[in-house]
Design goal:
Strand order of the largest sheet: 21-28-27-23-24-25-26-22
Largest sheet: 8 strands, mixed
Number of helices: 25
Shape: elongated
Strand content: 15-25%
Radius of gyration: 30 Å
Number of strands: 28
Structural class: alpha+beta
Distance between the termini: 86 Å
Helix content: 40-55%
Length: 790
Amino acid sequence: MGQMIRGFAELSPEQYVEAGGKGAMLSRMLQAGYPVPEGFVVFPSAFESDKLKEEAWTESAARLQKIRMIHKNARFAVRSSALSEDSAEASFAGEFETVLNVETDEQIREAMYTVYHSKDSERVQVYSSMQDMDSSHKVAIVVQLMIHSEISGVLFTADPITGSRTVLPGNYVYGLGEQLVSGESDAYSFTLARNRGRYEGPGEFKRYAAKLYRYACRLEKELGAPQDIEWAVAKGRVYLLQTRPVTTLNPGNRNTFEINDSLAGDFLWTNTNVGESISGVLTPLTWSILRSLDEEYNIIPGHYVMSGNICGRVYTNVSLSVSMFSAFGLNTKPIWKKMSRVFGELPEGMALPVYPFTKRELLKTVLPKMMHSMKQIRQTVRTLPQFLEDSPEWCRRLTTRLQAATTREELLSLWRQELWPQNVTALWSALEAPSAQMQKFEKLHKQLSEAAGEEEANRLLSNAGGSVELESLGPLIGISRVIKGEMSRKEYLVKYGHRGPNEMELSYPDPGEDDAWLDKQIAEFCKAPMDVEDILQRQRVRSREALKAFEQQFPAKAKRIARRIEAASEGPRLREAVRSEWTRTMRVNRAFALKAGELAGIGEDVFFLYLDEILDWLATGNLTAVQYFSARKQTYARYQSLPPLPSMLRGRFEPFKWAKDPQRRLDYYDASRPVPLSEHPHGERLKGSAGAAGRIEGRVRVLAKPEEGEQFQAGEILVASTINVGWTPLFPRAAAIITDIGAPLSHAAIVARELGIPAVVGCGCATARLKTGDRVIVDGGQGVVELIVN
């Protein structure tokens, strides 16, 4: 009998599931000290064959009498608390029955039956179907002391329509809240500013606003998501009647892999940087490893992280980092200008939404994280040479040990003790080790641009390092050396077999796993009109000529600038080197996953598990998530069917609706000011970022993936949505390069500069606006593509 009913003050976390969404939350709030009217939860186990067990009713009657002894003339509310109700996926608001103002035991018992049987109503069945949920609901029942409200209302800790966090919107009515939720009475609206809770609304409610604001902010922080809060005022006191996640801001369903983080609020997302190295749709396992790494690196307060999943694709939330600067009163325009070298230019007319962090919040939460971060950065920089030297052999040895593991315990130990720490080290090395050198590079680029123009600055800074080559050019130069007999095939595969177009997606085999892969690379390489090392040598000559011209123009600065150029060139080279070793480490995770799949008997379905599900299985032997494989695979396939998404997104973005809209923009999406296709820049001109200097005319070849490279003819202009190291073997054949996604510091731009190939990156819609055979003029120095109309 004790397991059938629990008072709000007695409910334990282990009983939350049986108490349902509403019952569990009321208990959590009351036990945390929030002003919640007292009551109790009747578990589903109290019913048998749709009838309330007699012993359950006896205990209910005793609890009612105890409340009446404290509250004379008490009346009660009897509400549903279905196990699926008030969740992040579905609120079921108003779908189950609620009975208010019941007084006698007989009325309450009848009300309990009314609520319980409402699970079989037509509206609940229809709602369940619309939410793609099981229609057979288990229902707990909440019996709670009625508050005779003078004022009743709701408050959202984020705008449920736009997702904006600037203010907390709310409304209220006089009397019971049922008039508000049913729409039977006109409501009064008000807002509370996110920072400091400044109230705007009718004067009568102002005296309660500060208390409600404090409760709301605390609830959101403790529960880790925007909240929809029902409240009431009685006898001058604010009571909380219910809270649940704002379901319209729910980023998705983890079980089915239906995830769209743009739905969580009004933020600016971009894949300009991350999209070139982590392109395409990710499986649940790859995504969860990347997200876990982001949480290790993240310094953002609260429950926000920098990386987001938008229908299987990785985006970066740039609003958050800019917002932290804004909170300290800094001018964000110059900050964003620097960031745009990595993340791309903000489209004209698009505003960067700022999250209203407070100084106090940041000082309290960010400073400790920054101290840890600075310590980690110092350690990373100090050990970087050793990391770069040891990484290839370390990865080879651990891969062998993972493949030889025979038990769950052994595999889990290898993950915890060795592979995960190395993942973290590799991440910090990739993101922070080149930072100081890249800042020098950027500073010098800015100075040279101001003195001689951006095009000349790019020439001066390309190939300035002499014979020291970019790591990302290694796979290309290595093929040349294999052909010349200067490197064996085995040496090539050991050194570069981890690099490829899908290198960060773990479900794809390593290129080196395919015996025919190197033969294909050699065959494609031989189609180039010039040897890559000859191309590099030619570019070195051009770089020296540019330096001589600069010396003649600025003789007093020449020697100093030459030394700075040599030093600054270390930045891009170091960045490419550490990215290569991060990639190599990521590929070891594939060996871990394959062994887990083998031991679990699920093979390559392991890539449709999340990392925490694998680790839980390794620890306990329980693997219940197999029930979601089919749904996750279907979602993955649907995501792969989408066209390339815009590289910049502001606000709530729904890709499947966007893809069906013939008026959609392809370069960016702004939910705050949707712009139809008719407002695209017309004429025959595309504008992007200056990637690599040079002006050339030719015919374009639009490719969706590097595997289509056999279609690409020498002298054509390569057009692709995004370009990573897997595209590099095509570069020697390209007269120029044009991309949708990219910025001046993207892989495509850096490699193009090294090879002296004109490039315009970050055009946004080049793959949609251009078609194979179009004749264009590419001006890489100005970042412009002109379409020649016959």
